[in-house]
Amino acid sequence: MLPEVSCWQLPLDELSLAPSTLHLWRFSLSTNRPLSELLTLLSKDERQRAERLRDPIKAEQFIIARHALRSILSRYLDLNRSELRFIYNPQGKPELDPQQSTRLQFNLSHSCDLAVLAVCFDHAVGIDLEWVDPQLEHRQLAERFFTDKERQQLAQTAPLRIRRSFYRLWTAKEARLKQRGHGFWNQESSASAQLSELFVHSVAIGKNFVCTFALEQAPEQVFKFSPEKISR
Prior knowledge:
CATH 3.90.470.20; single chain; 33% helix; three-stranded antiparallel beta sheet; alpha+beta
């Protein structure tokens, strides 16, 4: 049974997150606020990570994304943004410090200057967002990274839809792996059976973007929040 998915809406003053509900947050990775102001709310390791990024655009987007992540999660936990503490698994996937919350689960993805954050209770979630690049040599990537089943599914797609279908398959693969805490470049191999059992669903994020999330079971409802108007 597919979940009931809301339209994009402004965030509510008081958030109510039920165990069977998934919240999706969409936000831009551009800001008019000084980066120095945002940096003051990040942890030491986040600031160091931003400094290590040689591309100034990527560094700016990382700072904005982490500031937004803290701003959103703090609303669920009734904590100050700067008080949030993260831990990381061996593949670098962030989680909240168990001393602050063992229930709140999240996953963040971004592409170009757009980001999406998935938030839920008790169940690990994975999400992937990709901009549909009209120049991407998707057939080569499919041949290298897709399973036989995925390649067969792509081959059966109408030519006008094949590029978007590739991105749906790609984001589904990424979301499944992120839900399990694996890196994309690890082969699914023995974990493929478990990964295939996940509930995987694509949601409309914006024009020329494809977004897919993965959970152990289907949520009853998906609420989509967007703090700002994004014309895509």
